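Tutorial handout. Part one gives the primary structure; part two gives the three-dimensional structure as tokens.
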Amino acid sequence: PQILGPIYDTWKSAKEVLENELNSASDNPIIDVKNQTVHHGGNFHGDYVSLELDKLKLAVTRLSMLSERQLNYLVNPKINNRLPAFVNLGTLGFNFGLQAAQFTATSTTAENQTLSTSMYVHSIPNNNDNQDIVSMGTNAATICAKVIDNTFEVLTVQSLAVTQAIEFLAIQDKLSSKGKKFYELIRKIVPVFKEDEVIYPYLKEIKENLLKYKD
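Part two.
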């Protein structure tokens, strides 16, 4: 909770700010017909959006880092002292388990860390310097969306590793009700595997289910 708490609170804050902005007036000028006045207030400016999505991007990147480290714990027998390397249920030395999938999770987490540079503090004057302080809100939004998508990629690999670990330890009957529900969801997509096979289609389907998963 010390890690996921700030992430969750940042998500809630971003949700509130974005809902406020989506429901606010963005016209410039705003024409008040009733009082016959025109207001020039720069209401189109995206600073609230840009700053909030930069904060969310940082928090979600942190989530991917947590997921990647938890994944590393599962696949490294020198750390967990319980599971085979790469949660390999086949023959060590002949089968790879989730070794290649970990590469994907690690490189994707590194990409998130690179993308976490703030857009809010970048401003290039343009429009003959009429736009002198620019929010870069659209850039912030598209990069944040990429970071979120990347994080689901990492969570996907972790989910598969957790499921393989449960199989190895044979603890299906010891899972909580929510844990068992999640385990069964993954197992409906990916059967227990020992031999090496192409797992990208499985990972794609797991990710699609994570994106819509609710408990």
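Part three, for discussion. Residues 4-211 form a domain with the Fumarase C; Chain A, domain 2 fold (CATH 1.20.200.10). The CA atoms of residues 80 and 210 lie 26 Å apart.
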